[in-house]
Predict the structure of Serine carboxypeptidase-like 7.
Amino acid sequence: MANNNISSVLKSLLLLLQLFVLLSQKRADSASIVKFLPGFDGPLPFELETGYIGVGEEEEVQLFYYFIKSERNPKEDPLLLWLTGGPACSSISGLLFENGPLTIKLDVYNGTLPSLVSTSYSWTKTSSILFLDQPVGTGFSYSKTKIFNTPSDLGEVKRINEFFHKWLGKHQEFSSNPFYVAGDSYAGMIVPAVVQEISKGNYQCCNPPINLQGYVLGNPITEVETDFDYRIPYAHGMALISDELYESLKRACKGKYQNVDPRNTKCLKLVEDYHKCIDGINMYTISSPFCETAIPRCYIYRYFLSEYWANDKTVRNALRIDEDSIGEWLRCNPDVKMAYANDIISNVPYHLNNSINGYRSLIFSGDQDMQVPYLATQAWIKSLNYSIIDDWRPWMINDQIAGYTRTYANKMTFATIKGGGHTPEYTPEESFIMFQRWINGQPL
């Protein structure tokens, strides 16, 4: 009788162990269909999947994603991988503030869960979008171990490439859809390199080729020091500094305003005078008020609301977040950003290689953005020395000028958005129409 009891206990323990292993595997690499989200009234009017994909030798890094199918024809429409900048800002910024089908209702926080409402400008009207939280420690992405490689540009390129191959392996119904990599701000350092990495993989053994067609970038950082140097000519063009100060800066600094030689005291003094003029300016959209705190009339108040929403237990349960995987959710994680290694100095060579390989590109800039001014973007595009196919002209929405555009050889299109800021969230309707025309192969 005793032996029978021992045998029964051992069998029970074995079953529990098998169950634990199955649950661990599910948690480590999972996907869930989400039909309802707290804060939104009724069932979601689109198809949302959330989940984790493990990357690394031991799949120690668990990258979290939101996948929304195209509302038009998901079997044939393009598939976009969206990377938010920062680095270390959650892709929920893209989903809820820039180009997704939901946004946070801008109400004064009263202790209850912030509300979500539908948008009219979602890029998912014409494309499926995979919003990715990266690098590890961003949004809901986490590491199963405290020991992992410090995030860096080149490291992220490898991880994102691995992530997408694994994701596509689990979603083979999208393997023939036209695929694009997209993002804005600091994602400008990552996206062109990811395109090149995926392109290389298409010519190597063992993996089925990905139907890579091109990429989309908004106000992209390309060469950090050069990009930021263009803030001073931009400030002059927008009447933020005087002609006299600008001419003096040009003479004393010779176009280099970021890493000034400490012996060049004249340049340093003039740069100080420049900062006195612009330090009260909202760098992300110069036509909007500058806000240091999250107050209801301030634009960044919606970011404050997003943290209340994403940290709510019912929201985490709905999104199927692994319990105890992270502590407080932050829209942008300053600790990850501080640890991040910027090891791509310039990605102009990646743009050049991608163009030579025949990939389409849409590069756009909000003309009110001083963080990465359109002048900087125009400068590196000009350095590629492509011939102009369709010269500078306005592009229109309802007989009104929405911005300006120029088309280059090698399938590259540049566009400005009139009144636009650092990301599509400042002019979402115009950004959507621009993207919709381009992704459908129509002239802007």
Q: What stands out?
A: Residues 2-28 form the longest helix (27 residues). The chain has two domains: 31-223+341-439, 226-278. Residues 395 and 401 are 6 Å apart (CA to CA). DSSP finds 14 helices and 14 strands in the chain.
